[in-house]
Amino acid sequence: MALPEFLVIPFKEEWSSLPAARVRGDKILLPYTTGALFNCVKVGVPRGLLPSELLKQASREIKAHKNKYNYPEGDKQLRPYQRAAVEWLKVFKRGLLAFAMGAGKTRTALVLGKETRCQKVLILCPISAFSAWEKELQEIDLGIEAYFLKDLKQKSIEHLVDILNRDKFIVITNYEKVFREKVKKYFLKNFYDLIVLDEGHAIQNSGSKISRFCYKLRGSYRVILTGTPKGRSYLAYFGMYKFLDAGVFGTNKELFKARYSISNPNNKYHIVKWINTEELLRKVHYLCFRVSKEEALPFLPEVNEQVIELELPSKIMKKYIELEKKSVTEIGDELIGAINIVSKLNKLNQFASGFVYEDKKVIEVHDIKLKALLEFIKSFDDSHLIVFYWYKEDRKRIKELLEKHKVQYYEYCSNKHQDKDWAKNGGVLLAQMKSASLGIDLTAANTIVYYSMYWDSRVFAQSKDRIHRPPQRKTCFYYYLQVKDTIDEKILEVVRDSESMNREELDIYKKICCKYKKNIDK
Hints:
The protein is of the alpha/beta class. Helix 2 packs antiparallel against helix 3 (about 80-90).
């Protein structure tokens, strides 16, 4: 198909001086090239007035050269792919920056705000990411006061109202506060120059309160930052793109599911298979700027992973097998549902960690992981070590062990953020795997011990990247305390397998069923 000869935009005096512009009555004719399109963007021609095919061509050109993008004179703030992403966002005004962990998403968003002279900026992020934004704002100065809303006390709300009534501001707060009745009306009344959703998979569930709130926000530039855009389901794209541009997938989740998935006829909420994925990903790519770890961080050190295999005494192993058989029988005889499976797998996972719940009481069943952890710590010869756990009971038991043996430790969980003290003083950082997987830099260490794990592939990948990111220069070591012939083995297999994304529970269950030769429909 022949391309149009001219790019046509409405006449405006300030646009008539564009390079190669020809004024024809109430229209301006420009060469049909991406160069002319970029010039239009620079002078503020709305994206809706520019040809969609030319926009797509410009997007492809920028992405094709993302690692060769030339620095503007004197620009030392960004790597080439970051500069490309900024120029791409200037064209599209909205986009998903799917950068690998540590590749510089935060800085890219701030430079966009600076270069487009944004006056009103709203940034939503996890509390754990506050320090990262604070650090970047010291280096990328937008010339505007930044306010961190950390609580909803009356004094803080009064200060927030004052800030939001100003002509210039940067407000940074976390997802859990912004939609609360006390403050949401103040956020919704503004029109923002730039809205940034950091760790944007927070709105992957389009029906959640925070998602519904974000869809009501109004702004010129809309940017989502995440290292794991797909999350645990392609539905994550629907949730995020409804915020970025509802024209991509529409606003009806059921229509999206009908087009791209097949559901269980007995349970419409259980997606059995994804279909038309090539079309889906092609649409995603239109507003997604993807940078892999290999592209962004080729200088990162090597990774070394080791399984520390542990064996239960025969009597205890017999009890585990009984519990495993019971779980398979109970689930197999009922409709397979996510909640049912998760409940049974949690019991097996807790047993492998060393405890079970009976009548709401904790019963300790073994301590082989505790002994293995203590042995590892005693032989560890570096200054900083991270121990990840999943369950609250794991935390309690490990703390008792460390205190008994007078091991210096710090904590990172939902209500304790001692990572800075740990980085300064050394010792063991006892961290809840999910809480510590977002927004924090733990590169003071290069070794992680996974005491207990969960089957969320996204959380697993993000937790590993806490140490394998700039400015890390040492080889990164990951040790997995794994009880032989238990669910521990299945979890590690599944979270390492990207194909299991969104069906980790079912894949683990199938692996257990195969052990007892029980057929489960795929």
